[in-house]
Amino acid sequence: MAETTVTSVNKSKWSTLDMAYIAVFAVLIAICSWISIPTVVPFTLQTFAVFAAVGVLGGRRGTLAVLVYILLGAIGIPVFAGFSGGVSILFGTTGGYILGFLLTGLLYWGLTKALGEKLPVMILSMVLGLAVCYAFGTAWFMVVYAKMSGAIGIGTALGWCVIPFIIPDLCKIALAVALTKVLKPHVK
After folding, report:
1. Interhelix angle 59-74/46-57, nearest 10 degrees
2. What are the φ and ψ backbone dihedral angles of 151, each rounded to 5 degrees?
3. Which residues contact 130 (CB under 8 A, 6 or more apart)?
4. DSSP the chain
5. Cα angle: 185, vertex 187, 188; to 5 degrees
6. pLDDT tens readout for residues 67-88
7. How many C-beta atoms lie closer than 10 Å to residue 67's C-beta?
8. What is the CA radius of gyration of the chain?
9. Residue 162 phi, psi (nearest 5)
10. Residue burial 51-65, b: 16+ Cβ < 10 Å; e: rest
11. Residue 132, pLDDT above cutoff 70
């Protein structure tokens, strides 16, 4: 009987700890979405935070942190880039990239669960997750943009939405992997 009680308490504490980690990383994603690096094409750090979330927390908790971030934005809390929020952002031209973060997390979760959380698998999962996010986001962008302003070609869409971000996003992956190596041993 006593063993059952101790196990129940430990599971309860673990669930609370999970929720705390998920909340902290959802907030980190929001904060990083507000940080805009001014370059020829400005970019935010939210993809870094998505990679850090899945790397540090693992696929399940990291993906849930991304989902919480998206849901907070969907209900109107200004967690998206430019301190914006609301369903209209998700249904706008950039909404596919935000929803693509969830696909990134799910892909990371699936690959690391199947192949283990070894460093090469983590890096490959993040790079493939980025590619899926780009593909989904760009397809979404082209559909929404076509409804608003007329059709554009894939080359134009990639030139606007992907190519300028490849090198910064690969740098964010490298930074997230470095952060993961430092923090993961301390996160239960």
Report:
1. 140
2. -65, 145
3. 47, 104, 169, 170, 173
4. -HHHHHHHHHHHHHHHHHHHHHHHHHHHHHHHHH-EE-SSS-EESHHHHHHHHHHHH-HHHHHHHHHHHHHHHHTT-S-BGGGB-SHHHHTSTTHHHHHHHHHHHHHHHHHHHHH-S-HHHHHHHHHHHHHHHHHHHHHHHHHHHHHHH----HHHHHHHHTGGGHHHHHHHHHHHHHHHHHHGGG--
5. 105
6. 999 999 999 999 999 999 999 9
7. 16
8. 18
9. -125, -60
10. bbbbbbbbbbbbbbb
11. yes
- What is this structure's pTM? 0.90
Q: What is the pLDDT of residues 135-184, one digit of tens each?
A: 999 999 999 999 999 999 999 999 999 999 999 999 999 999 999 999 99
Q: Which two tokens stand for residue 52?
A: 């850090």
Record the tokens describing residue 45, joined without a space.
């750090």
Position 101, amino acid: F
What is the Cα–Cα distance from 142 to 147, expressed in whole angstroms? 9
Residue entry with tokens 């750090």: 45
8-39 confidence digits (pLDDT tens) = 445 555 689 999 999 999 999 999 999 998 88
Say which residue the tokens 């076509």 belong to.
Answer: 146
